[in-house]
């Protein structure tokens, strides 16, 4: 189905529908809250929550640790914190599957997004209490699952089925909004936490979640209509071709698992490296470790204009990579980012401190790879997924990120047991494997996903 034709007639936001602006700014402040809280989470657990005088007051933490260690074996407090971070950052990409089902079958995207936003706001509020720590994480996980996939579906619904390049660029702009929040959230919340305490940092994240709700509500008339028509269509059986498309999309999701694990490691092992071995002095001021999370968002913003210019320049010459080609390039860049870290990691293994430019280079290359593959794969799913299961399939895509983030938490436990150079070498191999698989499957998937009447580009 070709959704929301009226929305596509509005090109008032830099040549894109005004609805894209509201969706991008909603995600910007929702991501401010998410990344602001996440940027504090690992060090908050290690430096505050898991101290002897606080840990005993966290409801359910002892029982939860027993379950985790039943699976993993005994863990140090640092390794247990890494496991929780990995599970949390992974589960927020697991629940979109159920958020997609709820939207496709019952509520539609708009109401599901608002329900998720309300749950996330409550979760941020509960972070003010150490005792409610696990309950707060559960609310944030479920709320994010209801919101995240469905708001991405709405971006795709602003464009027609043949607008492949325009839709991909829209998702890059949308991702720039996300990363504006990813830039500001960790920086602002880290400074607030450093000077006024952890809970002030968490409170700032909660306030910006409320701002996100306000923006979304203000722009509702510019958004694609809710999917009552999809619920009607859901009673019709999927065609044989649609089932093949679903299988192809699931393959793309599966290949995306390891790059997600490698990318997410900068927020776990990367932060531990910065805390332990990076000279953070800057003009007499020590940069807070958690503030480095902001550089992911910064580079994901700064690289958008030159990347869009590159793609437009390539398009004028008929050489712009197609969706699957961009995804493949992104996986290769992700692998290169890990290889670059071999030299500084070797110096750390030798007992030396390293300059902060090294982790900044890691963040920059990871951001470039991310901009090549993630907005593009979002655009691909929104374009080719059968209309009756669009939100569900978008949820399945985020499920691959869930698996990757859970794996990154598990891999982070090796940070204490193997050399840092070997750790980055292993992660380079984990990204090179998907690059090779993407190369091998590129041509057949291009043919499967080609829109009727459109050229099959790579």
Automatic annotation (TrEMBL):
Topology of this chain in the membrane: Multi-pass membrane protein
**Do the record's keywords include Transmembrane?**
yes
**Principal subcellular localization:** membrane
Which parts of the chain are coiled coil?
A: none
Q: According to the lineage, what is the superkingdom?
A: Bacteria
| TM annotation in the entry | 32-50, 80-103, 133-151, 171-193, 199-219, 245-263, 291-311, 323-345, 357-381, 393-415, 421-442
Domain Major facilitator superfamily (MFS) profile intervals: 41-446
Does Manganese appear among the keywords? Answer: no
Please provide the record's keywords in A-Z order.
Cell membrane, Membrane, Peptide transport, Protein transport, Transmembrane, Transmembrane helix, Transport
Pfam families referenced in this protein's UniProt entry, alphabetically: PTR2 (PF00854)
InterPro entries, alphabetized: Dipep/tripep_permease, MFS_dom, MFS_trans_sf, MFS_Transporters, POT_fam, PTR2_symporter_CS
Localization, UniProt: Cell membrane
UniProt cross-references to PANTHER family, sorted A to Z: PROTON-DEPENDENT OLIGOPEPTIDE FAMILY TRANSPORT PROTEIN, RESISTANCE PROTEIN MDTM, PUTATIVE-RELATED-RELATED
The identity of this protein, by name, is MFS transporter
The organism of origin for this protein = Pseudoxanthomonas daejeonensis
């Amino acid at each position: 189905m070709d959704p929301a034709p009226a929305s596509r007639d509005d090109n008032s936001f830099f040549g894109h529908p005004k609805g894209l602006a509201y969706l991008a700014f909603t995600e910007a402040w929702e991501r401010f809250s998410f990344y602001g809280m996440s940027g504090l989470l690992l060090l908050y657990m290690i430096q505050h929550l898991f101290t002897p005088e606080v840990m005993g007051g966290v409801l359910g933490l002892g029982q939860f640790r027993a379950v985790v260690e039943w699976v993993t074996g005994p863990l140090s407090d640092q390794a247990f914190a890494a496991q929780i971070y990995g599970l949390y950052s992974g589960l927020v990409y697991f629940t979109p599957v159920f958020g997609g089902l709820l939207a496709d079958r019952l509520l539609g995207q708009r109401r599901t997004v608002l329900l998720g936003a309300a749950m996330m706001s409550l979760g941020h509020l509960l972070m003010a209490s150490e005792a409610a720590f696990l309950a707060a994480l559960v609310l944030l996980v479920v709320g994010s699952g209801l919101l995240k996939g469905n708001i991405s579906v709405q971006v795709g619904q602003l464009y027609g089925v043949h607008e492949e390049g325009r839709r991909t660029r829209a998702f890059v702009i949308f991702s720039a909004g996300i990363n504006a929040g990813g830039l500001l959230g960790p920086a602002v919340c880290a400074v607030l936490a450093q000077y006024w305490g952890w809970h002030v940092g968490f409170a700032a994240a909660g306030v910006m979640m409320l701002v996100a709700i306000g923006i979304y509500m203000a722009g509702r008339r510019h958004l694609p209509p809710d999917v009552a028509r999809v619920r009607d269509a859901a009673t019709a059986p999927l065609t044989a071709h649609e089932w093949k498309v679903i299988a192809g999309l699931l393959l793309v999701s599966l290949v995306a698992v390891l790059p997600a694990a490698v990318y997410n490691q900068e927020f776990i092992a990367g932060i531990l490296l910065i805390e332990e071995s990076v000279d953070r002095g800057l003009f007499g001021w020590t940069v807070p470790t958690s503030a480095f999370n902001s550089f992911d968002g910064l580079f994901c913003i700064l690289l958008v204009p030159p990347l869009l210019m590159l793609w437009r320049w390539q398009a004028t010459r008929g050489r712009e990579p197609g969706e699957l080609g961009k995804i493949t390039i992104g996986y290769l860049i992700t692998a290169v980012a890990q290889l670059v870290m071999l030299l500084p990691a070797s110096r750390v293994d030798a007992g030396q401190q390293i300059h902060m430019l090294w982790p900044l280079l890691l963040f920059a290359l990871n951001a470039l790879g991310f901009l090549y593959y993630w907005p593009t794969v979002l655009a691909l799913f929104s374009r080719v997924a059968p209309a009756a299961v669009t939100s569900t399939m978008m949820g399945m895509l985020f499920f691959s990120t869930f698996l990757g983030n859970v794996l990154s938490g598990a891999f982070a436990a090796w940070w204490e047991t193997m050399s840092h150079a070997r750790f980055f070498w292993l992660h380079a191999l984990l990204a090179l494997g998907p690059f090779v698989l993407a190369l091998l499957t590129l041509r057949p998937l291009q043919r499967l996903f080609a829109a009727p009447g459109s050229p099959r580009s790579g």
